[in-house]
Amino acid sequence: MTDRPPLFTIGYEQVSSAAVLDTLSEAGVELLVDVRAVAASRRAGFSKSHLAAGVAERGIGYLHLRGLGTPAEGRQAARSGHYDQLRRIYDAHLATPTAQGQLDELAELVKTGRRVCVLCFERHPEHCHRLMIAELVCERVGVGVAHLMAPPV
Question: Which Pfam families match (predicted)?
Fold first, then answer.
């Protein structure tokens, strides 16, 4: 491992946007990387434009890497609690050129030493594709991972 900061991850299930923003600020996150295929949400503050504006108010950058989002069938598997199926579907997705290119882009951002956090919906990383992303990036870059948890509503 290097002296670079870890790659952070966070999910917004069961939390308010203010709690997520507070948690990111407290961790010193400099860039929030949204890895949702669809950066829209019925939850207040989590659609792409609102989220980008919210983090900007905290001095945090925002980047949407849509190509790292889970395909629809993977999201359905996660909602149904079929996490092994999610992993299989997402592994296949990661082999696509778009996903590989965006994974490379994320790894390069982490290599710079910026405090980067990957965001998706699921509260628990073990139920989310962001864990798979974090594992791959951390292995490539040689940094640890820190899973942030905002207090639930």
Answer: DUF488 (PF04343)
Give the DSSP H or E segment for 147: strand 145-147
pTM check: above 0.90: yes
**Residue 152 within a domain:** no
Give the Cα separation of 32 and 153 in Å (integer).
Answer: 21
Looking at the 3D structure of the chain, how many domains does it have? 1
DSSP 125: G
Reading phi first (left if > 0) and then psi (alpha if -120 to 50, else beta), residue 112 is in alpha
3-class SS letters over 39-94: CCCCCCCCCHHHHHHHHHHCCCEEEECHHHCCCHHHHHHHHCCCHHHHHHHHHHHH
Give the three-state DSSP class for 122. Answer: coil
Which whole-number Å values give the CA distances from 108 to 71, 75, 112, in the listed order? 24, 27, 7
Q: Is the pLDDT of residue 127 over 70?
A: yes
Tens-place pLDDT, residues 25-47: 999 999 999 999 999 999 999 99
Task: Look at residue 100 and tell me if it is in a domain.
Answer: yes
